Amino acid sequence: MNGFTNLSEINRRAINKERQLLRLIRESEDDEREAEMGVTITPPNVDPFDFDEAGGLLGTCARWVLNNARSPLPELALFAAIIFLASVFGLRAVGPTGLGANLYLVMVAPTGSGKDWPLKAPRVLLQSLGAFGKAKVGPTNVTGDSAIERALQASPCFYMAMDEFGLLLQGATNPKAPAWTQTICRALLELYSRSDAYGSWKAKSTAAKVKGVKETPVEQPTVLILGATTPDEFYKGLTAASTSNGLLNRLVVIAMSGRKCRMSRPSPRCQKS
After folding, report:
1. In this structure, are residues 251 and 239 in contact, taking their beta carbons and an 8 Å threshold?
2. What's the start-to-end Cα distance of the chain, in Å?
3. Residue 34 CB partners (closer than 8 Å, separation 6+)
4. Where are the beta strands (DSSP E) in 52-126?
5. Closest CA to 186 of 242, 105, 139, 138
6. Element (H, E) at 219
7. For the chain, percent helix, then strand, then coil, each to nearest 5?
8. 3-class DSSP state of 218
9. How far apart are CA 269 and CA 273, in angstroms?
10. What is the secondary structure of 167-198 as a DSSP string?
């Protein structure tokens, strides 16, 4: 009787194993069919560059940037508005992960497409806020991580309008580039995750105290970048190191194929973006 009971138990387990194996085979076949058919991506129902969808102060600022642009590009106008508001509220708000508003936005567009105005528009808006806003305007170019640290010591939250961002990216990721250019890349990687409630950052510590240089680290540093570059220069700076070290993951990039002209009769040189 015991042997019969054991045999029944063995058969039951075997049937269960067979069912599990068949289920795994079916799931594997389904995955292969989906891979052959391709992944179906449902387009969003909301236009991310619709100022009415953005709403509030963000939509108002983006519309102001667009209306004052010589070559109006809604996508770049929204980028400028985002950087402006992130500069204002950078030390007053955190994201879902607890990090601050460290944003690295890059505008990739051909020469003459209208990148200059969105690049400088946040500065114009910030300067209209007086001393508070002027402190949020950072340098447009740096020579290394020490320069970024000095700027943060003066203001722990600021935005940098970086033209020719592709050239900076090339210098920061090229192993043959000067050492000080590579420190910029390392600083941007470190700063991205140091703006949480307990975060702090210091570029480097010197063996001897240097007059005028603060030794204390910057608490909750918040650096925002609005970069502009041409497609050729940008993609030249994307190397294997850019993907492996996480730099590419931290960039929010929008690429434009052309420009829209603000005139009653579009010029043949104008292309629809």
Report:
1. no
2. 81
3. none
4. 104-108
5. 242
6. strand 218-219
7. 50, 10, 40
8. strand
9. 12
10. HHHHHHH-TTS-HHHHHHHHHHHHHHT--STT
Distance CA 212, CA 154 (A): 12
Q: Which amino acid is at 245?
A: N
Tell me the C-alpha distance between 225 and 83, whole Å.
8
Amino acid present at 192: Y
Question: If you write DSSP's letter for every residue of 233-247 in order, what string do you get?
Answer: HHHHT--HHHHHSST
On the CB side of 218, CA atoms within 13 Å amount to: 28
Q: How far is CA 12 from CA 21, 25, 200, in A?
A: 14, 20, 60
Three-state secondary-structure class, residue 50: coil
Specify the pairing of strand 200-201 against strand 218-219. Answer: antiparallel
Q: Give the predicted TM-score (pTM) of the model.
A: 0.72
The CA-based dihedral angle spanning residues 242, 243, 244, 249, taken in that order and rounded to the nearest 10 degrees: 100
Amino acid making up residue 159: Y
CB 269 within 8 A of CB 148: no
Contacts of 11 (CB under 8 A, 6+ apart): none
* pLDDT by position in tens, the chain (length 273): 444 455 666 667 777 777 777 777 777 666 666 556 555 666 667 777 788 878 888 999 999 999 998 888 888 999 999 999 999 988 887 777 777 888 899 999 888 888 889 999 999 999 999 999 999 998 888 878 888 888 898 888 999 998 888 877 777 667 777 776 778 888 888 888 888 777 788 877 654 455 555 668 888 888 999 999 988 888 887 777 667 767 778 888 888 875 554 433 333 333 433
Give the separation between CA 190 and CA 202, rounded to whole angstroms. Answer: 10
